[in-house]
Specification:
Blueprint lengths: L1 E7 L2 H12 L4 E10 L8 E10 L28 H13 L17 H17 L31 H20 L6 H22 L7 H12 L4 H15 L7 H15 L11 E5 L6 H14 L5 E5 L5 H14 L3 E3 L3 H10 L5 E5 L8 H7 L9 E8 L4 H12 L5 E5 L8 H9 L3 E6 L8 E2 L3 H8 L6
Parallel strand pairs: 4-7, 4-8, 5-6, 5-7, 8-9, 9-10
Antiparallel strand pairs: 1-3, 2-3, 10-11
Length: 473
């Protein structure tokens, strides 16, 4: 007997490997969860360990026996075939009724796809309603892979209810992939098409509205704002302010008035840099936005321009590389660094850095679209009169994601926002949309990886020029 062990991510992958290596007559002996990799048993990845066997006197090309055929020799009780495999056979019989049961299922033609999917779904219902519990002690040399194609997923039932539930979820995912026929999502493309349609409709409506003609210079200004994806409600708010000054009809000077409205908007939301009386700055934000590099830039600015003594604290223990990166910056700048994991550690770190004029704290980058993870972070952030909390957001992110993250943070004391990766995008409308929707002040904008150079403290005029495409960052 040939016995092989496989460590895979899914049961589907195991089935494909078993069929390739051992053939369709192979029998699965055991399935269990295991962990691979990691350090001292920690941080290991979960995998499935599958053990399969094949009798050495069997040939892979031997045809599967019909169900009604009796075994010529006495053998142990045969293991019942997977209900998932039965669902595949049922779908195959409907789409290709002329083929015998032991044949491999072929890809059904387009005109029979819906019928096959219907039967496949019915097979899944059988799996949910009539689960068959079986023991690994009842294994035999009977085939569990017959009548299953090499690329078709199936589920091998095991006594472990957790594994059985996982296998059922895999089968449901396979159904969805089969029904969708492999067509990927087009969310970004659809969003862009809808945006272009809105621009066309707005232009047509303006062309047909003879009672309120739009001056050409103002029309071009509005087109630029919409191409930058500025919130339409904010654009209409600016237009209403101009109408309140000039009356219902726009004039050639309306474009300049519109610029003044944009400039006033940005000036009212300037947050400036780190305050001179600020002792602690908390830096928060999602993964991949450049928090650690931004902290190094802020430290260099405060040390070289403000002549302040700076200290580092990091709670980003989820990524070892993040600690090492900040440790490298601390060594270059000759700055003390403390690593914390709990509120108690944080208080001890503050005491050790008591001689510093300014403490910059790096927090863990997590999926902060999840409100629960945001609440966990608050245990390490203690806003006070002498502290500031900065939210770091990347300008390469979708505005919808930026707004969701800001919304989760906004229920806590959030002072200012730092926008990063300005050099990697040409769209800056999300800055204005975010400042319009939330009571935030913008502070810094980063436009590169160089420390300490690529850190800007922008004025309102700079943001207006960048938004209108008259200047680059």
């Amino acid at each position: 007997m040939i016995v092989k062990r496989y460590v895979v991510e899914t049961m589907i992958e195991a089935m494909q490997k078993i069929r390739t290596d051992l053939g369709s007559d192979a029998v699965i002996l055991s399935t269990k969860e295991t962990k691979v990799g990691g350090v001292f048993g920690l941080f290991g990845k979960k995998r499935l360990e599958v053990v399969a066997a094949l009798e050495s006197d069997k040939k892979e090309t031997e045809p599967a026996r019909p169900k009604a055929a009796a075994a010529p020799l006495p053998v142990p009780a045969a293991i019942p075939r997977s209900v998932g495999a039965g669902a595949y056979r049922k779908a195959s019989n409907v789409a290709n009724p002329q083929k015998p049961e032991a044949e491999s299922v072929e890809s059904s033609p387009l005109n029979g796809k819906n019928v096959a999917v219907s039967s496949f779904n019915q097979g899944l219902e059988d799996l949910r309603i009539k689960p068959e519990a079986q023991s690994s002690d009842n294994l035999s040399s009977g085939s569990v892979l017959a009548a299953v194609p090499s690329k078709t997923p199936m589920i091998q039932e095991e006594p472990d209810l957790t594994l059985q539930a996982e296998q059922q979820r895999q089968l449901e995912r396979s159904i969805r992939e089969f029904q969708q026929d492999g067509i990927p999502a087009r969310e970004d493309r659809l969003y862009e098409e809808l945006h272009q349609m809105r621009l066309i409709i707005d232009k047509l409506s303006r062309n047909h509205d003879e009672s309120d003609p739009m001056p050409e210079n103002l029309d071009k200004l509005l087109v630029q704002l919409r191409e930058q994806h500025v919130d339409e409600a904010l654009i209409q708010d600016w237009l209403e302010r101009i109408r309140a000054k000039e009356g219902p009809a726009f004039s050639n000077s309306s474009a300049e008035e519109f610029r003044q409205e944009i400039r006033a908007f940005t000036e009212n939301r300037e947050g400036g840099g780190i305050g001179d009386d600020t002792r602690i700055v908390y830096i928060a934000g999602p993964t991949g936005v450049g928090k650690t590099t931004t902290i190094a830039k802020l430290a260099a600015e405060q040390m070289f321009k403000k002549k302040r003594k700076v200290g580092f604290i990091t709670s980003d223990t989820y990524r070892i590389s993040a600690i090492e990166q900040l440790r490298t910056y601390a060594s270059i700048l000759n700055v003390p660094l403390e690593v914390v994991q709990s509120p108690g550690d944080l208080q001890r770190a503050f005491q050790k850095l008591e001689s510093c004029d300014l403490i910059l704290m790096d927090t863990a980058g997590r999926n902060y679209r999840n409100e629960m993870l945001v609440s966990e972070l608050q245990a390490l952030i203690a806003p006070a009169e002498y502290s500031e909390t900065y939210l770091v957001l990347s300008l390469t992110s979708k505005y919808k994601d930026m707004a969701e993250i800001t919304d989760n943070f906004n229920q806590y004391k959030l002072d200012k926002v730092i926008f990063t990766k300005a050099d990697e995008t040409g769209s800056f409308g999300s800055i204005f949309s975010l400042l319009y929707r939330y009571p935030l002040k913008y502070s810094y904008i980063t436009n590169g990886q160089n420390v300490p150079d690529d850190l800007l403290l922008p004025s309102g005029n700079l943001l207006v020029d960048v938004l209108l495409g008259e200047q680059t960052i």
